[in-house]
UniProtKB/TrEMBL annotation:
The enzyme's E.C. designation: 2.1.3.2
GO CC annotation terms, alphabetical: cytosol
Function comment: Catalyzes the condensation of carbamoyl phosphate and aspartate to form carbamoyl aspartate and inorganic phosphate, the committed step in the de novo pyrimidine nucleotide biosynthesis pathway.
Domain Aspartate/ornithine carbamoyltransferase carbamoyl-P binding: 2-143
Catalysed reactions listed for this entry: carbamoyl phosphate + L-aspartate = N-carbamoyl-L-aspartate + phosphate + H(+)
Single GO MF annotation: amino acid binding
Full protein name: Aspartate carbamoyltransferase
GO BP annotations listed: 'de novo' pyrimidine nucleobase biosynthetic process; 'de novo' UMP biosynthetic process; amino acid metabolic process
Family (UniProt): Belongs to the aspartate/ornithine carbamoyltransferase superfamily. ATCase family.
Enzyme type, top EC level: transferase
Source organism of the structure: Vreelandella subterranea
PANTHER family recorded: ASPARTATE CARBAMOYLTRANSFERASE (PTHR45753:SF6), ORNITHINE CARBAMOYLTRANSFERASE, MITOCHONDRIAL (PTHR45753)
Pathways involved: Pyrimidine metabolism; UMP biosynthesis via de novo pathway; (S)-dihydroorotate from bicarbonate: step 2/3
Taxonomy of the source species: Bacteria, Pseudomonadati, Pseudomonadota, Gammaproteobacteria, Oceanospirillales
Amino acid sequence: RQHLLTVDSLNRERVDHLLRVATRMEPIAQRRQVTRVLEGAVLGNLFFEASTRTRVSFNAAFCRLGGSVCDTTGFTFSSMAKGESLYDTSRVMSGYCDAIVMRHPDQGSVAEFAAATNVPVINGGDGPGEHPSQALLDIYTIDKEFQRLGKSLGGAHILLTGDLKYGRTVHSLIKLLSLYGPLRITLVSPPGLEMPSQLVDLVTSRGHHVEQRNSLASDFSDLDVVYATRIQKERFTDEMNESFQGLSNDFMVNRDFLDQRCSEHTIVMHPLPRDSRPGANDLNVDLNGDPRLAIFRQTDNGIPMRMAIFATLLEVDELVEKEMRPVRW
Ligand code: CP
């Protein structure tokens, strides 16, 4: 069985396959059809860090394929609170479950867990490491939005902004984007929160044009996608918290930025959650209701893409279309 721990395991062909399978899942995700292809299968959903979208949408996706889900959230509800190791937890869970989704605050921990099991493990986010299913649903969203607008990824201009150092979604996304294109990628972050240089080097070596800046105050009239991210304060040291306290609103994606610097066709994405507390500066609520704001279309796309990931890892992806029937409710 294969795992999904990092997007490094995916080439263009595998990503395109997942996009096609996700499209086939849409009638189920939109609650017009049902299937039972995973009847009898049990998912272990192990979340040792806060989550709404990833935890609930993986759960819903597995249920919509006919499977059942066991959820564990937080260290206090796991025997890891009593000192049990990742290795032992993994061996135990393998006996109970047919697939496991895991989120953990430590980078590399999900891979360590996966090494001890023979059931497919999906990385639901490992600290500042990677978040491969989020990046896959992001590519699926970009593809759908571009189809609607009559655009293609070839030659597109994509802006990734916010905390590019600790934001695991952008670490996975920039690698997946680099399979397409050629692209123009602009990276904008506060000083000290830049994209890791090895990822910039990788994308550049694949023939993409990458620019890095510390301000959004530029002309983005040719921009196709702005992908904003939250400042990951929970990953900061006390010293960093102090130095980023006065972070200005220069990195805020809001109506002024979109109307004055971008175009009427620029799509706004964000992995969410966006920080709605005073002083937060990622994505302003003044864009709510603007058709360019794709964030809730993006969250909806999490269901068909996560269904596609399960169906492919558990090798029922060719069965789903044959075993679909209309809903009775
Ligand atoms: N995008 C994302 O991972 O959201 P959650 O933290 O709510 O799962």
